[in-house]
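Thread amino acids onto this structure.
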């Protein structure tokens, strides 16, 4: 499985003149990466060396926040010209990757402790050739995040009374807080610094700051949270759940939709469309500045989105299980062929697999169910 993961070609990047006397070569034999460290420099003898296999996410941005993870490490004392290190690749699920907003590099790093300030260091990239995935030309965002057209009044009448009341009070609360925030901004904008209530004219380092922009940021964040809560309540016109929450999807087997999801609606539903979609998600972080405010922005962007199944239903009476109306089936074969397997370097950096069931309706707010990607087998994505 892993023989095609890595080639023996390496690109050495020498950080100091001394490192020119160090060479690292590698090859894969029986799923094991064999690395030969050739240290042809007697000045480095009896020095401590640290060998690491590293996976690193490089964010493609002008102000990136990168992340790295050490997969394997070994510490040894240089006492001969050749040091042989063997790594069992079957223990790791990492690969090199280049795409839209992130690159993932897999490389070997050797650091010899031979200086107080600048140690001898050499890195050797491991080139992989296994993931030659087919091109995906579909509009990624519109598949994963379809435009949600709904009638707010009709949707309100379709939800329980307690959900209606919560939406009402959330709206009143949000409007009141935003109004108070606007009054505070207007006051703080046009008074001396010592007279401000909340929005200072300066940062802690005495750089200038804008009460207007700071106020707008707080109002936007509050409204985004309130709208999220309102949409959660608007979805209560029906229950929409997975029949099972723990299941490993087979590579080529077909599954009946009626065995995957179920629902019951409080109202009659007309012209419903069921979709099953999948994509990879690129995750990372970058830094943005607003005046003198520095903030770290986390992003999750869908790529390589594909549609696995679509099914339309003309009419479903209220309080009726969807199982009586779903007729189709779905296979995950195309998803395993097209998408990359999950490789998260940290909780915020890497590439993940996203799979969801969508219920599209033009009168009520859309529903979605997201499956836990940990139930997709890594090996299914590798060879086709």
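Threaded sequence (384 positions):
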């Amino acid at each position: 499985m892993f023989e095609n993961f890595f080639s023996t070609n390496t690109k050495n990047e020498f950080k100091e003149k001394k490192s020119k006397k160090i060479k690292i070569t590698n090859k894969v034999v029986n799923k094991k990466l064999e690395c030969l460290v050739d240290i042809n420099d007697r000045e480095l003898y009896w020095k401590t060396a640290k060998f690491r296999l590293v996976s690193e996410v490089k964010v493609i941005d002008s102000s990136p926040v990168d992340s790295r993870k050490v997969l394997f490490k070994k510490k040894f004392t240089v006492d001969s010209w050749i040091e042989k290190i063997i790594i069992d690749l079957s223990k790791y699920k990492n690969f090199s990757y280049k795409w839209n907003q992130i690159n993932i590099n897999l490389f070997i790093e050797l650091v010899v402790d031979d200086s107080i300030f600048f140690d001898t260091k050499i890195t050797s990239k491991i080139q992989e050739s296994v993931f030659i995935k087919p091109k995906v030309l579909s509009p990624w965002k519109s598949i994963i995040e379809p435009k949600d057209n709904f009638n707010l009044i009709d949707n309100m009448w379709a939800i329980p009374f307690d959900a209606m009341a919560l939406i009402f009070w959330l709206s009143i609360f949000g409007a009141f807080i935003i109004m108070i925030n606007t009054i505070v901004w207007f006051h703080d904008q046009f008074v001396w610094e010592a007279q401000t209530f909340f929005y200072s004219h300066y940062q802690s380092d005495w750089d200038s700051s804008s009460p207007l922009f700071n106020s707008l940021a707080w109002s936007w964040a509050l409204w985004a949270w309130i709208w999220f809560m309102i949409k959660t309540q608007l979805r209560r016109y029906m229950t929409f759940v997975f029949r099972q929450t723990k299941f490993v999807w087979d590579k080529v087997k077909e599954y009946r939709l009626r065995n995957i999801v179920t629902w019951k609606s409080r109202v009659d539903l007309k012209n419903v469309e069921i979709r099953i979609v999948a994509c990879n998600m690129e995750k990372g972080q970058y830094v943005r500045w607003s005046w003198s405010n520095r903030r770290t922005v986390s992003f999750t962007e869908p790529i390589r989105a594909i549609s696995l199944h679509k099914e339309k239903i003309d009419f479903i009476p209220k309080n009726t299980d969807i199982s009586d109306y779903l007729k189709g089936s779905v296979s995950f074969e195309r998803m395993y062929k097209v998408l990359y397997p999950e490789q998260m370097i940290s909780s915020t950096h890497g590439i993940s697999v996203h799979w969801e069931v969508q219920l599209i309706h033009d009168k009520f707010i859309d529903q979605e169910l997201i499956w836990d990607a940990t139930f997709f087998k890594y090996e299914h994505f590798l060879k086709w």
